[in-house]
Amino acid sequence: xxxxxxxxxxxxxxxxxxxxxxxxxxxxxxxxxxxxxxxxxxxxxxxxxxxxxxxxxxxxxxxxxxxxxxxxxxxxxxxxxxxxxxxxxxxxxxxxxxxxxxxxxxxxxxxxxxxxxxxxxxxxxxxxxxxxxxxxxxxxxxxxxxxxxxxxxxxxxxxxxxxxxxxxxxxxxxxxxxxxxxxxxxxxxxxxxxxxxxxxxxxxxxxxxxxxxxxxxxxxxxxxxxxxxxxxxxxxxxxxxxxxxxxxxxxxxxxxxxxxxxxxxxxxxxxxxxxxxxxxxxxxxxxxxxxxxxxxxxxxxxxxxxx
Length: 307
Prior knowledge:
Blueprint lengths: L2 H10 L5 E7 L11 E7 L3 H14 L3 E4 L5 E3 L4 E7 L8 E3 L3 E5 L4 H10 L2 E2 L11 H6 L3 E2 L2 E2 L4 E7 L5 E5 L5 E2 L2 E2 L5 E8 L1 E2 L2 H18 L25 H7 L6 E2 L2 E3 L7 E3 L5 H19 L8 E3 L1
Parallel strand pairs: 2-5, 3-5, 4-20
Antiparallel strand pairs: 1-2, 6-7, 7-15, 8-16, 9-10, 11-12, 11-15, 13-14, 17-18, 18-19
Helix pairs in contact: 3-5
C-alpha cells in the first residue's frame, strides 16, 4: 500500500464515503486545464460530509469545494489536498412551495432557471446563460448586467469547517459585487423568494437574456467566463468595465502560449489547444500590468485559482 493510500485510509477509515486518489481535475473544469487532486471525495449526504470535514480539520488537510468548474483554474501541478464534490442526488433536490423555492448546492443553475420558468415563477431569469451550481453561484453572487442571484435569496444553509450546519437568514447576509459575507466552508442549499408569473413570459425573458450573451460572449470557447471583475471606482474618463479597459489597452487577440484574449469579448481569456494553466496565468498577469500602466486601474481576478 502506497503512503497516499495509507493517508487516505486513515483519513476516511470507518466512514461510508466514496473517495478516489490522484483524480485529474481538468475534465471537471470549463478550461479543461490543470493537474490532479490528491484525493476526491463524494459524500452521499450532509451527515457524511460533516464527518469528512471533521476528519480533514483534525488532520489539517486542505479542503477544496468543486462545483461545476465554470469559474475555476487549476494549477498544472494539481491540488495537494481533499477536493469535495456535492454531486450526490441528496445535494441536488429542488422543492417548491407557494412563496419559496429551495435548491441544493449541487443543483445545476441553468436547469434551475428553466425549472422555475416552467413552474410559473420569476426572480432568477437574470441568471440565464450562467454556468454554475447553486452553491457556487451563491458563493460569488453570480450575475451580470441583468441582475444577480443575491437579490432573490431568502436564506442559505451552510456548514462550517468543523461540520456544523446552520441557516443564514437574509437579514444576516450581504451580497455585494461578486462576493458575499458567507465565510462558512460549504453552502448546502439556498432558499429563494420568487414571484408567480405567466410561464411563457418568464421563458421569453430567459431566451432574451441568453441570446444577448450568446451574441456578445464566446460561450463555446474554453474559458472561465469573465476573467476580471469590473472595477468599482474609476475616474470619469476611464471605461467602467474590465472588458472595455482590456479592449482599450489593445489586448484583444493577445496571446501567450496557448492562452488568448478573446477577439469577441476582451474580458474572456480562452485556452486553445496545447494551453497550460501557466499560459493562462501569465496572460492574466500581463493584462493586469498593461491595464494598470495605461489607466492606473488594478484589475481583480474573477477567476478562482487552485491552490
